Amino acid sequence: MGWAVYYTISEGEAAIVRCVGDGSPLALPEAIEGCPVTSLGPDCFGAGAGASDGLRLVDAAREAPPAPERGPGNLTRLSLPDGVRTIGARAFARCGQLARLTLPRSLTSLGARAFEQCGTLEHIELSDGVTELEEYVFSQCRKLVRVRLPARLARLERQAFYNCVALEALDLPDTVTFVGSGLFMNCRSLARLSLPLGINLSVLLSDLSNDLDLTVRYPDGAARFFLPGFSYEYEDIIGPRIWRTITHGSGYLYRECFSSRDVDFDLYESYFDLAQKQDEPAVAARIAWYRLRWPYHLAPRAREVYLGYLRAHSLSVLELLLGEDDLEGLDTLLALAPPAPEAREEMLLRAERSGNVRFAARLLEGGQARQDSWADKSFDL
Asked: Which residues have CB under 8 Å from 165's CB, separation 6+?
């Protein structure tokens, strides 16, 4: 079995309107009847039966393509030719077995729901010619982990990443001026987000209740924040349909510091007392550490509060840095708030157990004052 590719010709360009096949890898031709292939039509892979052996090119003006099917498509791997500029709405929707796809650099337009429910797609890179992501374009791509966004992207329409439960990080370029509602709804694995000032942060953050490493880029620098996760609980008070909402964690208040145009730094710093009471010490230490390491618009008084907390909880930050093998961060911590000897010694032991030789060596270099106490110890690195 193979593929039947239905096409049309107009003004010297070929458009592929439907591909019907058995799921084997498919390489689309660069030209048909001497005309370059420039577009894939709506529902292009929305049918999955009736293919002939090999690759059969079918003029859609002579033989009508089958209607799109509602069930999952069986495409597994696809090569798109250079020259394709447009991918129509729902072109790959429900291609649940599509694991690999390379998009051409010539691409400029993706239709709404183009990759909806591509359940095995894990990584995709979009060409810099694409300036807008239509609504639901990657919705319910449940294994999508990484997306490389175009350098000139301007708009992300509503729910473009709805239910992308495996998406881990996203970097929105400085050219983005609009984001739609529900963009990250149910993106429960999204742990790192970087974006320029001016985007409606309150809209984006309303969808993200998990721990979030957030970077906001300003014209003269960048501010980096750690926003703790939070959860809701509904308690029945008295009588039918009378409920009280109980919120666990300070993260919901921290998100109120981000508006459509700017960040209220004073309000953000004011919630640190609450974070110390409602969150684990490791969470509060990470809040303090991020503001101290990236001190954009950090007031002197807030800096002293954060430093005091960090000195008392340096082991939590050291553990974070060890997990990320962040030597630069370790140098910054040792300069800003040198950990107590006991904390440094404990971290050295943990570095030894993890086999991180560079981290252990750096701790030893910065611990000259404790050399005598370590003289009778040995570390198998």
From this structure: 142, 186, 187, 188, 189
Distance CA 112, CA 43 (A): 11
Q: CA 46, CA 76: separation in Å to the nearest integer?
A: 13
Distances in whole angstroms, Cα of residue 377 to Cα of each of 341, 345, 366? 14, 11, 17
Two tokens, residue 64: 């009508």
Question: Is residue 232 scored above 70 in pLDDT?
Answer: no
pLDDT for the residue numbered 340? 83
* Distance in angstroms (rounded) separating the CA atoms of residues 320 and 316: 6
Tell me how far apart the alpha carbons of residues 10 and 131 are, in angstroms, rounded to a whole number: 25
- What's residue 234's pLDDT? 54
Does pLDDT of 187 surpass 80? yes
Cα end-to-end distance, the chain, whole Å: 57
Q: What is the pLDDT of residue 379?
A: 42
Distances (CA, A) of 294 to 172, 288, 290: 19, 10, 6
Residue 134 makes CB contacts below 8 A (sequence gap 6+) with 89, 110, 111, 112, 113, 114, 157, 160
Contact 136, 112 (CB under 8 A): yes
| Whether 286 contacts 313, CB under 8 Å | no
At 112, give phi and psi (nearest 5°): -60, 140
Task: Give the whole-angstrom CA distance, residue 281 versus residue 174.
Answer: 34
Beta bridge partners of 31: 36
Tokens encoding 371: 């050399």
From the CA atom positions of the chain, what is the Rg in Å?
A: 27
- Identify the helix (H) or strand (E) that includes residue 237: none
DSSP-derived 3-state class of residue 156:
strand
Average pLDDT over residues 118-136: 94
Classify residue 287 by burial, with Cβ atoms within 10 Å: 0-12, 13-18, 19+.
buried
Cα torsion angle, 338, 342, 345, 351, sign: negative
